[in-house]
What does this fold into?
Amino acid sequence: MLPEAVAKQIIADHQRRPRHTGALDGVAGVTLDNPGCGDQVTVWADVPQGRLAVTFSGKGCAISQSSASLMTVALTGKTVEEAHALARQFRAMVMGEEPGDAHLGDLLALAGVSRLHARRKCALLPWRALEQALEQAPPPPP
It folds into this structure.
């Protein structure tokens, strides 16, 4: 777990200056909404040469937008298998479970969300969109 001040700084930085934003050419995005709070996120995922390219756009609270930005940073360049493993670990952390042998890096800034039940959906929204985007992404070349 990161110190609270560091976590807040990481979340604020990713909200103000989101990384990996905008559509990926030739890839359909997956848009999900959280009607409870108005969050919306679109995630694009592609797997050229077996490594993930992921971007997003969205609007909503600091948690959903920071989660999306942190997700794109953490997953860009990973394999699909690595992405799924990190998504499982992140979900476990947000739900207050032990994330296992996780190397979550700056994603640990969102660990405090586990204590805020209403915010869990906000943090998980981009990850749910990612899972759906990966399902429809073209397979990597052999």
Remarks:
- The radius of gyration is 14 Å.
- The longest strand covers residues 39-46.
- The chain is about 45% helix and 15% strand.
